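> run fold RNA 2',3'-cyclic phosphodiesterase
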Amino acid sequence: MATQRLFFALELPDALQQQLVQWRADCFAADAGKPVAAANLHLTLAFLGEVSTETAGQLQQLAARILQPGFTLDLDDAGHWPRPGVVWLGCQRAPRGLLQLANLLRAQAARHGCAQSTQPFHPHITLLRHAAQAVALPPRGFHWRVEVSHFALFASSFTQGRTRYRRLARWPLLSAAGA
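> ok
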């Protein structure tokens, strides 16, 4: 049976991806960790793992039925998780809409056999991987604001020594007027 490694995520606008890459280069030492490629910067909502074509189709049908307002994401926090070796960018206060969307997608995934982490959802964008040593974090004061109007399903593949993410489907969130 064919499977794909899938996850639901928020895409970042290209301009923001480039700003974050520049900020990362300015704020973190070159040996702090392995930088995530600009095109791979995203905020995971629900990791699905290896999923059959049939299950992927069912999850896409459920995702298409989600009627939730868009929201504003303030990226104003950063941290380092030494055990997984991740340096991340996130939000000091996650918007309710983000938490609701992630919880809904994670619950649907679990009902369809996709194991979900027992850790609380911590919305973040992975900036660096393999950051096992202490990392100096930039001083507070950085801030990017993103208007979130859609979410997407991605496939992850590892080819030629690189991880690549390919968007399979995308769904709109309701506009403020439609909420």
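The mean pLDDT is 94.
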